[in-house]
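Go through this chain for my students:
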Amino acid sequence: QVQLIESGGGLVQAGGSLRISCAASGRTFSWYIMGWFRQAPGNERDFVASITWSGTSTYYADSVKGRFTISRDNAKNTVYLQMSSLKPEDTAVYYCAVNPTNNLYAKKGAYDVWGQGTQVTVSS
């Protein structure tokens, strides 16, 4: 059974940067596409970014394109989300998840294992 543990969330001022991490265990991490999602209070959980097993291809939601960067270190079984030029509307709980399909652009329903989330709060 795979487990995902997110870390690195916190409070940051608008315009600032933050890097959050997701450590995986229990499954061969390097085989899978990984994704980041976020959920603000009262909202659905929305896609943020995804990355192929090799890290050579990435995909971003329009709302974060050019500001966020997803990356992974398969030797450490960890995926990262570097967030820059943060805005108050980026405030949410951020979740990482495993996508067992071959589709980098797969929707939320394709992801089958989720972490517990890490809170990111951006103050204005």
Remarks:
- The mean pLDDT is 95.
